[in-house]
TrEMBL record:
<protein>
    <submittedName>
        <fullName>B transposition protein domain protein</fullName>
    </submittedName>
</protein>
<dbReference type="InterPro" id="IPR001387">
    <property type="entry name" value="Cro/C1-type_HTH"/>
</dbReference>
<dbReference type="InterPro" id="IPR049945">
    <property type="entry name" value="AAA_22"/>
</dbReference>
<dbReference type="InterPro" id="IPR009084">
    <property type="entry name" value="B_transpositn_C"/>
</dbReference>
<dbReference type="InterPro" id="IPR010982">
    <property type="entry name" value="Lambda_DNA-bd_dom_sf"/>
</dbReference>
<dbReference type="InterPro" id="IPR052026">
    <property type="entry name" value="ExeA_AAA_ATPase_DNA-bind"/>
</dbReference>
<dbReference type="Pfam" id="PF09077">
    <property type="entry name" value="Phage-MuB_C"/>
</dbReference>
<dbReference type="InterPro" id="IPR036733">
    <property type="entry name" value="B_transposit_C_sf"/>
</dbReference>
<dbReference type="InterPro" id="IPR027417">
    <property type="entry name" value="P-loop_NTPase"/>
</dbReference>
<feature type="domain" description="HTH cro/C1-type">
    <location>
        <begin position="11"/>
        <end position="45"/>
    </location>
</feature>
<dbReference type="Pfam" id="PF13401">
    <property type="entry name" value="AAA_22"/>
</dbReference>
Length: 315
């Protein structure tokens, strides 16, 4: 084992090179922050050998992680695909018109990534992701209150606090995975749209649209359906989506391009394509190659999926 002085120098070099905080190193190494601080300063009065063992394991793990990370090619940053432009139109309309928009479609059509991108570009646009724990009216309102930093974050005055916080902001609330919300929760958000005068966009899977449309036939919830000002849907990525995304990944031969286009058209779409290519590039980089082969794509699929790539596609 290296001396403690050498080990401390190594840790500090890792910290500076990778922009790590002592808090992060503490979490990753399992060394309490106070102990780590004293150890790195050469002032720890406890069992230095025990701390050094943990620190050495962290250095070795961190070194391996970064070596692998360099070989793992990242998916392209956000790319404005044709489908993304479609989703952006919904967000822009809902925010400007202070109306309700609905986006539905299959997984892997860049709905969430577009929502995240929109929120980085526009003031007072907030993204909330629903799940089974946020399906009730009070639960989703409480999460929204935390996200927008409303003056009231719980209790009977929650709705009025949200209205006070949001009115006049010309804002947009984007609710991803909205299929998890109960009908009562959807109606509560419809009321928030009405009373706070802000835009709302619901993102979900395809059954969400049928569910909202069905509410138009129920007198008690007809307002939900009638308040939707724009609907957009897409069942799978378009050829234009695939063309744009593959251009960002770089040149591929025809056989590889044909295979990854097939993958992009399956369940999971663009998300599945990115994950498969990322794994394939990892294999190629590990072998010292600057391009991916059919075998890399097959491995990128077969290692990650419960069923192997169909033979008709491989051929």
């Amino acid at each position: 084992m290296t001396s403690h002085t050498d080990l401390i120098t190594t840790i500090k070099n890792h910290q500076e090179r990778h922009g790590l905080s002592q808090s992060q190193i503490s979490r990753e190494s399992g060394i309490p922050k106070g102990t780590l601080n004293q150890f790195l300063a050469g002032k720890y009065n406890g069992d230095n050998d025990k701390v050094a063992q943990k620190a050495q394991r962290w250095v070795e793990t961190n070194t391996t992680r970064h070596q692998l990370h360099q070989k793992l090619r990242q998916a392209p940053d956000f790319v404005m695909l044709p489908s993304c432009e479609r989703w952006m139109n919904v967000f822009e309309y809902a925010q400007i018109a202070q109306d309700i928009g609905v986006i539905t479609g299959a997984p892997g059509t860049s709905k969430t990534m577009t929502a995240e991108h929109y929120c980085t570009l526009h003031s007072n646009a907030w993204l909330i992701t629903a799940d089974s724990s946020l399906k009730t009216p009070h639960a989703i309102l409480r999460d929204i209150a935390e996200t927008v930093d409303a003056p009231v974050k719980n209790g009977s005055r929650l709705m009025s606090g949200l209205i006070k916080r949001l009115r006049g902001t010309q804002g947009l609330l984007i609710i991803d995975e909205a299929q998890h919300l109960t009908t009562a929760a959807l109606d509560q958000l419809r009321a928030l749209n009405d009373r706070a005068e802000i835009g709302i966009a619901w993102i979900g899977n395809e059954p969400l649209r049928g569910r909202i449309e069905g509410l138009g036939r129920e007198a008690s919830y007809a307002q939900i359906f009638s308040r939707v000002g724009m609907w957009k849907s897409r069942k799978k990525p378009t050829k234009g989506d695939l063309d744009h995304l593959l251009t960002q990944w770089g040149a591929m031969d025809n056989d590889v391009s044909k295979l990854v286009r097939w993958i992009g058209s399956q369940e999971g779409g663009l998300r599945e394509l990115n994950k498969t290519l990322r794994f394939a590039w990892f294999i190629a980089s590990h072998d010292g190659r600057d391009s991916v082969q059919i075998s890399d794509i097959e491995a990128g699929w077969n290692e990650r999926r419960p069923h192997p790539l169909p033979k008709r596609v491989e051929g």
